[in-house]
Records
---
Amino acid sequence: MKNKFQKIRAEFLEKLKTVSDVGGLRELELQYLSRKGELSSLMHELKDLSVDMKKELGALANNIKNELETTFNEVKDQLDKLSVKNALVDITVPGVEPVHGHLNPITIIQREMEDIFSSLGFTIFDGPELESDYFNFTALNIPPFHPARDMQDTFYVDSKNQDGDLDLVMRTHTSPVQIRAMRKLGAPLKVVVPGRCFRNEATDARHEHTFYQFEGLVVGENINFANLKSLLELVGKKLFGPNTKLRMRPKFYPFVEPGNNGEYTCFLCNGQGCRVCKNTGWLEIVGGGLVHPDVLRAGGLDPEKYSGLAFGFGLTRLAMLKYGVTDVRLFNSGDLKFLEQF
Amino acid sequence: MYISYNWLKDFVKLPSKVSPAEIAEALTAHTVEVEGLVSQANKFDKVVVAKVLEVKKHPNADRLRLTVVNVGDQKLNIVCGAPNVAVGQMVPVALSGALLPNGLEIKTSEIRGEKSEGMICAEDELGLGKNHEGIMVLGKNAKIGEPFAKYLKSDDIIFEVDNKSLSNRPDLLSHYGLARELAVIFDSRLKPYDKVIGKEILFPEAKDSKLNVAVENSELCPRYLAIRVENIKIAESPSWLKERLIAINQRPINNIVDLTNYVMFETGQPLHAFDALNIKKIVVKLSKQEPFETLDGKERLLSADDLVISDGSQTLAIAGVMGGKNSEVSEETTAIILEAANFRAATIRKTAQRLGLRTEASVRFEKSLDPNLTEDALKRFLALLKDICPDMKITGNLFDLGGRVKTENKLDLEFSWLFSKIGQELPKEQVLNILNKLGFQATKHKEMLSVVVPSWRATKDIRGREDLVEEILRIYGYDNVNSSLPAEKMTAPIINQERALERKIKDILYLKFALSEVYNYSFVGEEQLKKLNIDFFNHLKLANPLSEIHSMLRQSLVPGLASNIKNNQFRYDSLRFFEFGSVFFNAPGDFKKDNDSEAKIPYQEKHIGLVLAENSRDIFSELKSLVTGFFHELIPQNNEVIFSQLENFPGWAESRLAAKISIAGQELGLIAILNSSVEKNLNLKMKAGFAEISLDALNKVISDSDSFRFQETAKYPAVIRDIAFVVSEEILYNDIKKEISDFNPLIKSVELFDVYVGNKLAAHEKSLAFHINYQAPDRTLKSAEVDNLQTELVNHLISKFEAKLRDF
């Protein structure tokens, strides 16, 4: 028995010397060291021996097993090192890419805007997309048969009130949420309202009946035009960089007085003039003004005590400008070839 | 709206160094956006006067002719299709390279095999009218080779003004109104309008024996001026008049019609001339339902809401919109009745809208015109008419129903209030100067500013003090205001939980589960819903949809997501999308319809919709894993996701593979696989599974999970025993699990670890295997105790579910 162990030891060590590759090593391991290898089989036979013999040979067997395994591992390490040294690893091969998801680019722009205003203490507010004619128009100082209704081609919902009028609309702007916010939160307040809006116009590369706005409203006891200007300047710098300038032009919106549009230095050409800004160096991006006293009243606030400023950005327009998207329909297309770029 | 620079110069003398571009910029900065600036000379670049030398038949086309024309420095061969071309005519020729106002670019080309080196133009091609009957034949004063612009004497410059932003300024739809603004902006003198009229018009005192005028609805017609004029000779307008109209893209018609238009574009007041033959009486009244032929030769159906001008027996004109064919001024006209009226804006707008007939007149009336403008316009017309028809004779008195309106619109405000709205002080003298130059009468009484509003601004535009803030600020210049951020008390912002949740949901879905976010339309169509087997009877519909495919409001995000799969399926092996959007129902919701009543607008809520589509995997179980994982991310506590039987399957769902989702007893939505018939209808080549979750319900579960508290970990060890048994496939996991959990209080948790269906079992059988976790709060459980419980449990399950212990 003892000799058998010694023989295995000698054989194994002899063969180990001649092994030159990982394959040979594996064969050797199977033959001698594995669970069903020669050494294990022999050790298995120990169980039939007397207690004393078991003790003696058991110790020997364990020593041999340890020795062989240690030597084996040393050789294996050397061979491994050699093979690593030899194989050239192309570290430029990419890893296996996990599956990605993508946000709609409008969401990305919306978040950018929300973050700017959240950091200024604004609440992000929300309102219904199917609105009443009252909130969408009348409460915003656009009474029935006011020509300003022309500015906004409207989708009406096919449901008439007692007077036989269509009085439900798909909201044409996020401004009705101004009234709902004032009614719910009172004054002072600072809210922004991102959201989906609708206009009844045929779609093509430049027109969409479904688009996204970003409305803002500040009401307080001393809100003035200089505040509005300052806030819009600040947003422009945050959005388009510290050298961005704002210029304001009078513009009529029934729900503000005075009313303005706002143009920012074209961020594509830094105001030098390019195709996108039609060589003016400016991009018209925002509209705003001081909240009309009728609108404050509709919001349940006393215009003698409070004043407000309001502004609205076109999120869709911002996204088109920022990413150079020339076909507005892509945002609502669900085309993965488009989405996966964001 | 087009505004002629030359015309403006009749009223205001601007500093000579100011260029038209600077005028456009100044108007944009202070008054209204000027969208374009066109010089007449550029408009006719490469268009010259030519003489027709030869006309021959085209060898290959009956209706075409070959011409040779002399353009001065050379002779050109031009193929011409006009029937009226003849040798000796002077004609406008567009040379190769010309870009015509109608967008046509002229190139030398071959027409039916014959070379053509330019084009002989018709009126409409040059933007000079609508006439396309034949080529334009020029007058005797035309010189061969001279630029066409020079022939037209068009040295004018045209400003294109954005109409849309003028809906509050009826006074600006006119040359005089814009001239007034320019006079303020450039601090120049504005010629008073009575000086523009020049002549004193004398109206006979004597009642006109040939005319009577009555207004039945003075509320709808606050002022009506009419006068009868004889000895009219209808003719072509004098060239100065035609030039002015052509410059602003109006087609000259005849002297009377042109003059009414001229005065309208100058003052903003529409005028109408009736042929006075057969008209003894003018009555302004509401119409009855009747057909009526308008000037444009179309028959319109009038309603009882329309205001009309009648002669007592028949309708002559739709008030403020368009005249009638029956009283049209024609070549035979010798006497006219001139109308200068003021109509109620809303009435005109309603009628114009209903008839789909928006005219230069209706556009002005619907903005609320100044009733006093009627007088100026009428006088201006008569003064000019005297020049054009020197023999004209006013036959009687001027009818003026309603009379001159005295404006009582006076506003008082404190300077301090004004400055608090601006955010800075302005010199008081400057404030007064701006207002007075704009036509207000502004005076200062210590700290008070007192302002009388001129009649042309008082109809709608200037109603309150705030309107004056804009007047002062826009002239002062928005860009000159010093900006300053609001000074306010610090307050903690109100966080909108729903919006915060929306962001979290999107992040989980796109970052963790690799779904891509789509935005689908809120509108769906009948055909689409039919294909999805969705009943659309109760869907809200649009009254004025753009198309049939977008005619109803969606009640689910599934139709949109299904088309996302369809549209992308050929370019990908596997697709996963989500949408976060509103759905709409035909039932009262939470939001109020107005401030005064309890009425509500229709119910609408936000849904989260997901779709997975692929062919090689078990979409249903993947969908369940995704939904479970999604809720675990969102609500890490107390949130076992339960899938249970749906009571009502959507028509698109495969009934075997559809389930309701709930957490903590709150129903949240559903998951389901599209059934094969819908798959076929939609032409889907992938297996698609959907989940749709209500944000409101989810929000509820989340706010309930706020009550979550940490629980002490158990002090005594748990004993885990496994159990595996075979039941009929009809027995549901949920029921078995409930039975086990409720069996004994010592059973702390139950975990399914294997489900087997296959050839080791009989048909319609399945095997389930559970880890069962026994634990007591106060002691270590003894092995025997657990063994007993487990045996009882097994027996219970065997009898309850006719289960068999699994023996393999």
Note: Chain B touches chain A through 94 residues (CB under 8 Å).
---
Amino acid sequence: MTAESAKAFEALEGQARDLVGLFGRAGYEFVAPAILQPASVFLDQIGEQVRARSYVFTDLAGEELCLRPDLTVPVSRLYLERHPLADAEARYCYNGPAFRFQPLGPSATHPREFRQAGVECFGASDKAAADVEVLLLATDAVRSAGLSGFRLRFGDIALFYALVDALDLPERWRVKLRHYFWRPPSFHALLDRLAKGERITPNGLVTALAEQLAGKGQAEAEDVVSAYLDAEGIPLAGNRTLREITARLLDQTADLYADTLPKEVATVIEYFLAVSAPPREAVDRIAMIAHGAGLDIDAALGVAARRFHLLEGAGIDLKAATFATEFGRKLEYYSGLVFQIEAPGMDETEPVAGGGRYDNLLTALGAPRPVPAVGSAIHTERLLAAVGRASS
Amino acid sequence: MSAPSLVIAVPSKGRLKEKAAELFDAAGFTLRVKGHERGYRGQLDGLPDVAVEYTSAAEIVHQLRSGRVHLGITGEDLVRETVHDVDGRIAFLMPLGFGHADVVVAVPECWLDVSRMADLEDVAEQFARNHGRGLRVATKYMNLTRRFFAKEGVTGYRIVESVGATEATPATGTSELIVDITSTGTTLKANHLKVLEDGLILKSQAHLLASKRAGWDARARELCERILSSLSQ
């Protein structure tokens, strides 16, 4: 990265001071989490692809560290340091650098070192109200920085989960669909097979054991597997338990004997994931798809509708916004609303701000109980560039 | 003494060193170590302006990448693991028929429910649910592993770097599965590991390699041609 001029630096700093000032007046306490983070937190929660996007290195003591790729995880860790019991409501704001490796080389809109200013809201039990609070704060912030004519894009992971819950499927298939949702290529391969009514054929070993396993409960099946391992002289290794190995063998046995899944399941999911429209229209369309398939996801749709109602009540014009069911499939820690703010003339891949709800992250980071959480971050360089372009 | 027209890097120890010497011998250019027997420079009989440098198999990759040597002999696994933009930097001139090693994905034999790469993603999901973390893959091939797993759509894992006795890590509990080299499979079998049906990442052997970044003047190209045609006979 070339050194930035003093003027550009001062402009960014000035903008950041204003943003953080606005967050502070809204009741968000300023925090400054560590820039160097233990890499294992990110590797365990996000996976090995973090390495392809982050600066991960080993220090002289052999500890794997990374330059934080975002501030949500560091701020969440800070919350847990302050509230180990995860029993307090807290609102934090921040401004500081984050770092991402850019495989195509750093560019003005995809720099490898950039600054994020944002907010995180932990423990607020009225989720829809907290979603709206954070989203309004983000739109107020970019507006106060001088941005106008921006577009909003929404998604809602909870709707997909509700749809999967409502489908008439064996639980093992629900687990698969929920997990693969975050891995679009594998997900589409899976849907393809469903649509064709293809059977998932297990390996030869499973087929050989299936006869002994069919119809057995977990405990009985474990005896079968244990006896087989003993007879073959195979020890248990690799940290997976006999219970886990047996559970998957039972799932595979069930697939072997079960009817293939109805093709309609794939069709409903495909229709659902094709929805992209202004929010109210999108909610109606999803309701139509669900009712057409005889599925009840009214509760999740009600939550989404209420959220949009609150937003409109607060003066947000949703007619120009987009709600896309596919949106937000990148970061697995999101669990509900996801959104981003797009400046005029900048495309979907370079939003000036983004955020969402991540109710499962804090337990994954070690919280002793679930903590509802929602946050938003502003890409400050992009915001400054977008405002500058509009005024020139 | 004038600077050599062509520099070849050759492994400095082990079977790769012996095999490389046999290879040049058979081609009619006997390899001679300069000075004492364990020196690090050598020459090819009949080619006085070719310098031979003995160095480690891993270092040869770096020398080729940066263009400090023209030619080198080392394993394809090391080249593909170490060099990010292989095609722009190194040319594979000739497979040499020795140093065979397969880079494979191996899991504990007791994972009766796992036989293919696609199983790993489901196992990762189950493992994360029960243990609160992803699968750990022990390997020294971090880049080959990452690329292969990404291609196969496996995401729920992390790599733990292992420089020795990788095959023992699932039994000791520091990993769940491994990516390692195998030639006969006996070591894996002895450690109660099995290779996944579609878990072959690379069928590696020693290659004669050329650096695209070295200074290739007319004489260097001519020498390279001569060596190459003698080796292919």
Note: The domain at 6-99+205-232 of chain B is CATH 3.40.190.10 (D-Maltodextrin-Binding Protein; domain 2).
